[in-house]
Amino acid sequence: MTRILSLGLFCFFMSFFQMASGQSNVRNYAHHPVYIYNFCKFTQWPAVKTELKIGVLGNSPLYEGLRRMAATKSTYNLKFIVERYNTPNDIKDCDVLFIPFTSPFDVKDIAQKLIGRNVMIITEDEKHIRDACFNFVVKEGKLMYQVNKQQCDRAKLRVSTKLLSLGIIVD
Questions:
Q1: pTM of the predicted model over 0.70
Q2: What does the alpha-carbon distance between residue 125 and residue 123 come to, in Å, rounded to a whole number?
Q3: Which partner for 33 in 65, 91, 104, 141 could form a disulfide, CB atoms 3.0-4.6 Å apart?
Q4: End-to-end CA, the chain
Q5: What tens digit of pLDDT does each residue of 55-69 get?
Q6: How far apart, in whole angstroms, are the C-alpha atoms of residue 106 and residue 91?
Q7: Is the separation of the CB atoms in 34 and 7 below 8 Å?
Q8: How would you classify residue 118: left for phi > 0, otherwise alpha for psi between -120 and 50, otherwise beta?
Q9: pLDDT digits (tens, 9 = 90+) for 94-121
Q10: Please, what's the b/e burial string for 135-160 (b: 16 or more CB within 10 A of its CB; e: otherwise)?
């Protein structure tokens, strides 16, 4: 019940923030850490974790926002660790990987290398949703997210039905 209430409050506040900000620049990354926090909170990994490593590929303003989030949030006694990777070869053992739209690296190749490692890949370019679990999009001026349930299943990640219901499901 508390998860449903948390998710409901999350949606309410995100709607409020988007209306208040006017969404003149949706890539300002102010709200992305909240979304990613909730993606993590409402997803079940195959193994119990005490730490959740979030990686950011390349230089993205989201890195600092995620570091601030990691310093203040925890999910069921789960510690967040945020790392920056300069190249796909630097990716060692992360649980969540954010690949910004500015990344020069091939998302499909990265996804292939991560098969079997239970990594939640998050992108922000619709052409990459086939290889990602979540993808940030802008619809009617609002920041939203797409969910590729098949990719989540391949990564053995169980995403809550409430989180699925709030996203745009992509086949």
A1: yes
A2: 6
A3: 65
A4: 29
A5: 999 999 999 999 999
A6: 14
A7: no
A8: left
A9: 999 999 999 999 999 999 999 999 999 9
A10: bbbeeeeebbbbbbeebbeebebebb
